[in-house]
Amino acid sequence: MDKTQFSILVVDDEADIREVLEITLVDIGYTVFLAEDGKAALDLFGKKHPSIVITDIKMPVMGGIELLRQVKQQSPDTPVIMITGHGDMDLTISSLKFGAADFITKPVNVDMLELAVTKAVDKIIAEQKLVEYTRKLEMLVLEKSKLTSHLSSLGLMIGTVSHNIKGLLTNLDGGLYIARSGMKKNNIADMAEGLDLLAQAVEKIKQMIMDILMYSKDRQMNKQPVSTRQFLADIENTMAMKLAGHAIEFGMVSDQAPQTLHIDAAFMMSALVNILDNAVDACLEDREKSEHQIILSVETRQDQLVMEIKDDGCGMDVETKEKIFDLFFSSKQVKGTGFGLFIARNIIAQHRGTITVDSIKRRGTTFTVFLPLTE
Ligand SMILES: Nc1ncnc2c1ncn2[C@@H]1O[C@H](COP(=O)(O)OP(=O)(O)OP(=O)(O)O)[C@@H](O)[C@H]1O
Ligand SMILES: [Mg+2]
Q: Which ligand 1 atom lies nearest to the CA of residue 341?
């Protein structure tokens, strides 16, 4: 036990006693502070935060009992040892009531003093250990519950993903079948249709694998300067493929956009495509209008990059809106895994950005992504 880490405040109005106590305690290895009455001691206690207080009971200005009471109020765990004289019985009993740790009698016997201090130190150490153990235990419990929830979401993930892959395999089979029979009949239109189906399914699988990768590890972002024009052109191409054959118009507004974006292009693309995919689904779901529009706008607002994805699809009610960022929340039955927005928000957070949503049922939805402009 390293005694130098413990400090002791010694309080007595008699200079001789203070001196004897100081010499003895310093000799053992403790740091010692001295005060001549309760009031001076309390001042010093607030400044030096000693580990232990040893105080005479009877002193002018402020006595030992009042000092004990106030020390215990400020710091209930600090042991206070009382020095009592002959005929201090009543005071001794009061100090017991206020939580004194121990008593030594005058004239002070050095062995008794050392014994009382050692006992107090042992108690402090035991309490510190208890706090440390409790903290460790709490951490372990937290770890365990994190692990359990991770495991159960892993199980859920394997289930939903397998289900989705099965659906996509059916699409691949269908595409292959149509393309092959087109080839047999030398029918270019059928071949093209089959290939389109294949391309869509491959794109969806790619997206899903990106999502799983993103979920399975908190992958380190690789942020780099990226040409805004190139990035948006890639999105436009992806969208053109998704929208082929649908009455959905895709528009982009980027005249207020910065020339360069500081992003991990692959991951940010995956986030935006997830949001855009949902917009497409929402437009297809909405049978009230025969034509739809999705608009992506990118602009600098103050010191932020703001990207807005607006659709005039089916929109959503308030209850749905509250859950859309949850992992595995999907209103699309077999067609959705509930990965998209969870991943999108993760990617955006890893870019130190945020995402918000506004939606009105049967009117449409707007997602807004805020990102810091520079690294
Ligand atoms: N633009 C939108 N319009 C209406 N509802 C939306 C829109 N975007 C998201 N949602 C709702 O949020 C839910 C969660 O979206 P998310 O992308 O996380 O999963 P998903 O699209 O169902 O499945 P996945 O993206 O994994 O294929 C959707 O099922 C849908 O109910
Ligand atoms: Mg989605």
A: 18
Residue 215: its pLDDT value, please?
Answer: 66
238, 266 Cβ separation under 8 angstroms: no
**DSSP code at position 12:** -
The contacts of residue 238 (CB under 8 Å, 6+ apart) are: 203, 269, 273, 276
Tokens matching residue 169: 């395999």
- 202 near 238, Cβ under 8 Å? no
Token pair belonging to 364: 């449409």
More confident residue, 261 or 343: 261
Residues 279, 286: contact at Cβ < 8 Å?
no
One-character DSSP codes across 199-218: HHHHHHHHHHHHHHHHHHS-
Cα distances from 169 to residues 108, 174, 205, in angstroms, run 90, 8, 10
SS3 category, 46: helix
19 in helix, strand or coil? helix
| CA 212 from centroid of its chain's CA atoms | 21
* Strand 80-84, strand 52-56: pairing: parallel
Residues within 5 Å of ion ligand 2 by Cβ?
A: 278, 340
Q: From ligand 1's centre to the CA of 174, what distance in Å?
A: 25
Pocket of ligand 1 (CB under 6 A): 274, 278-279, 282, 311, 313-316, 320, 324, 329-332, 336-342, 365
Residue 225 phi/psi, 5° resolution?
-65, 130
Of all helices (H) and strands (E), which one includes residue 278? helix 265-285
Question: What is the gyration radius of the CA atoms in the chain, in angstroms?
Answer: 37
Positive or negative: CA dihedral 165, 171, 175, 177: positive
Report which protein residue has its CA nearest ligand 1's atom 1.
279
Q: Which domains does the chain have, with CATH numbers?
A: 3-108 (3.40.50.2300), 220-372 (3.30.565.10)
Model confidence, pTM: 0.58
For residue range 35-86, list pLDDT tens digits in order.
999 999 999 999 999 999 999 999 988 999 999 999 999 999 999 999 988 7
